[in-house]
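Protein modeling request. Please complete all fields; requests missing the sequence field cannot be processed.
Requester role: graduate student
Desired output: 3D structure, C-alpha cell encoding
Chains: 1
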Amino acid sequence: MEDWIADNIDKMRGLAQTGMCDHCLGRMFGKMGTGMTNDERGRLIREALEDEGTDAPADDFCPLCENVFELIGRFAEAAAESINSVESNNFLIGTRVEPEVAKREKEYWEQYGLENAENIKTELNREIGKVALPMIHRPVEFKNPQVVACVDTRFADVSLDIAPIFIAGRYTKYSREIPQTIWPCRVCHGKGCDHCHGKGKMYPTSVQEIIGDIALEMAGGEEHFFHGMGREDIDACMLGDGRPFVLEISSPRIRDIDLDELEKRANDNDMAGYNSLHFVQREAVERYKGAAADKVYHVHVIADGKVNKEAVVNAASSFKDANIDQRTPRRVEHRRADLVRKRKIHWIKADAITEDSFDLELETDSGTYVKEFVSGDEGRSVPSFSERLGIPCKVETLDVLAINYQEPMKG
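Delivered output (411 residues):
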C-alpha cells in the first residue's frame, strides 16, 4: 500500500462508504499520488480498502456529483461546436456547476479535514477539455484565451466569452459637424425622442461610427468602442497624419478581418479618413489614452479691433517656450474639475494678417486649451495671446495639424 493511502486510510474509508463515485473519491485526495486521473485514483483507493477488508463500492447515483462525469462527452461536443463557430487562435473551457454540488463538496472537505483535495470545477474543466481538444484543432490558452466556452453542467448549455479585437490607426476629420464618438441625446440618453428625431443621439454620425459600423459587420461582433488619444472639438478639423486611436470590437466571431478592406470602405466618405490600421493588444488602449503628445494647430483668429501686423508678429514670437496657466474653461467646467493646469506654448507663427484677422500656427503641450489661450477666457488663461496683443481676440476656426506621437518600438 502506498504511503499516501496508508496515511489517510480512515478518511478514505469514511468517504468511500458514502457511495461517491471514483471521480469524486479520487478528487478528495487529488494532490496526492501524482501521474493518474482522479478516476484512477479513486479506483486505487477502493482496491486498497478491499485489501484492508472494507468493501465500499460506488453507488449507481453519486451523492456528490450526481453522475455529472458520465456526461463529459456530451459537454465536450457542445463546447467544441460552440468554439468552432467562431474564429480564434486558441481557446479555454470553463464550467458552471450546481451550487448544491459545490456546497456538498466543501462540506466533505471540512468534515474530513481534507487539505489536498481538488475542486470539482477544475476536474470538469480538464476532463471536458481533454475530450474536446481533438475536435477543436487549436491550442488551449490559460492566460489570455481568445475564446472561453463556459459549460453549464446543469443544462449542458454553452455560453461563449469572446475576447475583443483591438484595431489601432489614425483618423483625420474634415467635417466641423461630427464628433469623434457617438454622442447620446441629452434628453433621452439614447432611447429616442422628439429632440433627437428618434435617433437617440445628437449627431447623425461620428468618426467612431463611420469605421466602427463597418468593422462590426466584418467581424460579426456585438458592439464597437472608440479610444482616441484625446479629442478635438466638434467644430475642429483633424488634419495631417491624423489622431491615433484604438477601435475595440466586442465578441467578434471573425478575428482576422482584412484591414486593407476595412480602411478602403471606411474612407469612402467626405467627413473623415483612416490610415495605418493594425491589430494591437488590449494594453494599447491605456497607452494611447495616457499618452501626452505635443500638438500643432492652425487657427483663424478674429480680432475685436484694428490689427497691427508688427504687433501680431511680436506677440507670436514672445511665446517661444512660454509657460501659461489655464484654469478649466467655462465651456467645459460642467464636466471637468476646476483646476489650474500648467502648459507650455513651444512656438507660434503668424500669417495672413489683415486689419481684423490673422492666422496662427502653434505647437503646444498636450492638453492645452488653444481657443482659451487665444481669447484669455475672461482671465482664466494667463498669459493669453489677446493680452499680449492688447486686443480682444477669438478663434473662428481651429484645425489640428499634427499629433507628435510615435509608437513604442517592439522587441
